[in-house]
Amino acid sequence: MLLLAGCGGDNDSGGEELTELGKGEGQVNLISWAGYVEPEWSKPFEKKTGCKVNNKVAGTSDEMVQLMRSGQYDGVSASGNATARLVDGGDVDPVNVDLVPNYKTIFDDLKDQPYNTFDGVHYGIPHGRGANLLMWNSDDVSPAPTSWDVMLDPEVASKYKGKISAYDDPIYIADAAVYLKTHQPDLGIEDPYELNEEQFEAAVNLLKEQQPLVGEYWSDAAKQISAFAGGDSTVGTTWQYQYFALQEEGEPVAASPASQGFLPKEGATGWSDTWMLSSEAAHPNCMYMWMDWIVEPKVNAQVAEYFGEAPAQSLSCDETAEADFCAKYHADNPGFWKRVYYWQTPLADCGNGSSNCKDYNDWVQAWTSIKG
Amino acid sequence: MSRRLASFFNGRPRLQAGALLAGPIGWLVIGYLGSLAVLLIAAFWTVDPLSGEVIQGFSLENFETLFDEPVYRDIVGRTVLIAAAVTLTDAVLAFPVAFYMAKLASRRGKAILVVAVLLPLWSSYLVKVYAWRTMLSADGVLNWALEPFGLHGPGFGETAVWLVMSYLWLPYMVLPIYAGLERIPDSLISASEDLGASPLTTFRRVILPLVFPAVVAGSIFTFSLTLGDYITPRLVSNTQFIGNAVFNNIVNNLPFASALALVPIVVMVAYLLVARRLGAFEHV
Q1: Consecutive H or E run containing B46
Q2: List of chain A residues whose C-beta atoms are within 8 Å of the C-beta of residue B77
Q3: Which member of A87, B18, B106, B281 has the lowest number of beta carbons within 10 Å of its beta carbon?
Q4: Is A363 helix (H, G, I), strand (E, B) or coil?
Q5: Which residues partner with A117 through β-bridges?
Q6: Contact residues on chain B for A214, CB-CB shorter than 8 A
């Protein structure tokens, strides 16, 4: 049974919301980040619902958008720098959260966020989140840095020339904007994803100055782990996953301590992923069942521990195999997340009425010229 | 039925060839040239900056960006330069190996060498690049081996890209040169010697002209493979190749990515024209 609900965003397709869950269609086609759909929890799902899981792993947000536009998938675990693009492009449909019972107990600070709710309409189910930490090799970097200036202030950073590890994606421009927000307040940066010409130029120039100092731009976690383990990088921006993986390997890596709220003083960028429903989904019922399954307390704990991120489900913290997992990843520490700027798609619409902000296409072009 | 079909084709050689080639040629025209044509057309399209949707009209905007933005000139120049360096390196490295294989090695030695040259092609491309990444890293085996001499490896960067690509594509240069040298009768070399030519003159006046088409054939492989690569630059450097720029744009600005993708095609066409000028295809 389908019912027409309020149309979200400015797309023309979609807008229809399921009001009642029907029988499963026998299978579901997913696009996900590596580690989000693993047999440990997808097999029990298949058994329980009869929906066979076909998963396609994507490496970047861009790839996810591209795959979703093929119309062959039912859903995607989209990061905030993809969600608005998918909504705007009419590639995804609103999600009726009443059909996802486990949604109720999801952490409140993940609900109704600008990257998963558009014009008051829910477009997905939060999956988990992480922050981009500052990590360094404590043998080579001392004193322990308290600011991103070790990577971004040319004077400080030149000490680590050739050993700096930066994230290889246009969205990294936001990291420079977060830094400038504190250090050049006269630029008036509010949101690092909504930058006008002047702010954008300042951020891009900062990264152009950083470029000759960068040892490596990393895009996959394995590459950065090998660079830190092999001595090619000594300071960089990282995910919690690499930080803990390197610690387990016995590498002398460190990240901002509790006394600084686990983040450099400027705060940091981060990501919050959302399971979204394709507007061309051939198996919407199975997709709804999957969205509920993935935030089931036990499953969400499994995924979070497997991937190395904070679970979205508040009840998951009692289910983790590692007792202090949620504390380690700050899952239940809203103070930590207040200082994290989740990835969002840069749009021309600045959100404050003016539409002179740089859109994602500008970010991509600028990123190419930053790397040279 | 089959008998009737056989008698139908009997004595009609043109029809025979046509029936045989219909499949492959159809695939080539539709699947290969067709997609190239789409690429060419898409390069003139644009993207609406607000909705991000592709506008299917005619515009030179993408090419203007390509020429006006200095970064793309840098990227194209760098890619072509490294591709040329890799080709030259491979030609210099491959020639002695191929010559030994073709003219000096015993039957058994020849077989072993051919297998040895082919062996790296049996393992995955990614494994090989990652292996080089480990070797070239600061704590890697290369620096370890060079340290006693007070030397340092190149580290990650353009030099690393050149090294890794030269390694990756070397078999594609060795094999054509080997095949080319095999075809030169030993008697020609003997004759040159008998007529009093020094080994160098024999090489310059007899061997090189005869084997040149094979070198060009190999160079087309090494040059075009380097030109189109984008994973190696990503793994062992911060350098951007044309492929990386295409990759960056493929989701948000497919028309611009198409325009960029035309650059290697144009470069290859120019390369082939020059090769023909040099007489590379005359003895084939």
Answers
A1: strand B46-47
A2: none
A3: B106
A4: helix
A5: A122
A6: 238
With CA atoms as reference, the chain B residue closest to A346 would be: B50
CB contact under 8 A, A170 and B248: yes
Q: How many CB pairs under 8 A join A and B?
A: 75
Nearest CB to A372 within list B235, B240, B248? B240
Q: pLDDT-based confidence at B152, cuts 50/70/90?
A: confident
pLDDT for the residue A14 = 46
CB contact under 8 A, A369 and B69: yes
CA geometry: angle at B207 spanning B203 and B210, to 5°?
150
Quick one: what percent of chain B has pLDDT higher than 90? 63
Asked whether the beta carbons of residue A170 and residue B155 sit closer than 8 angstroms, the reply is: no
User: Looking at the partner chain, which of A226, A359, A369 has a beta carbon nearest the beta carbon of B133?
Assistant: A226
Task: With CB atoms and an 8 Å threshold, state whether B137 touches A226.
Answer: yes
Q: Pairing state of beta strands A125-137 and A235-239?
A: antiparallel
Mean pLDDT along residues A41-49: 95
* Residue A109, C-beta contacts closer than 8 angstroms, at least 6 positions apart: A334, A337
- Mutation target to probe the A interface, by most A beta carbons within 10 A, among B137, B159, B241 is B137
**Residue A177 burial by CB count (10 A; 0-12/13-18/19+): exposed, middle or buried?**
buried
Q: How confident is the model at residue A308 (pLDDT cuts 50, 70, 90)?
A: confident
Q: Where are the beta strands (DSSP E) in chain A?
A: 2-4, 16-18, 27-32, 52-57, 75-78, 92-93, 117-118, 121-122, 125-137, 164-167, 214-218, 235-239, 253-255, 268-278, 310-311, 340-342
Which pTM does this prediction carry? 0.81
- Closest residue in B to A226 (Cα) is B134
Pairing state between β A268-278 and A92-93? antiparallel
Contact A364 B134 (CB under 8 A): no
Q: What is the nearest CA distance from A154 to chain B, expressed in angstroms?
A: 18
Taking each continuous run of H as one helix and of E as one strand, the counts in chain B are: 15, 2
Contacts of B47 in chain A (CB under 8 A): 361
Chain A hits for B65, CB-CB cut-off 8 Å, are 365
Strand partners, B205: none
**Tokens describing residue B265:** 């095609």
The string of pLDDT tens digits covering residues A50-77 is 999 999 998 888 889 889 988 999 999 9
Q: What is the pLDDT of residue A5?
A: 39
A334 CB-near residues (< 8 Å, 6+ apart): A107, A109
Are the CB atoms for A168 and A236 separated by under 8 Å? no
DSSP A267-280: -EEEEEEEEEEETT
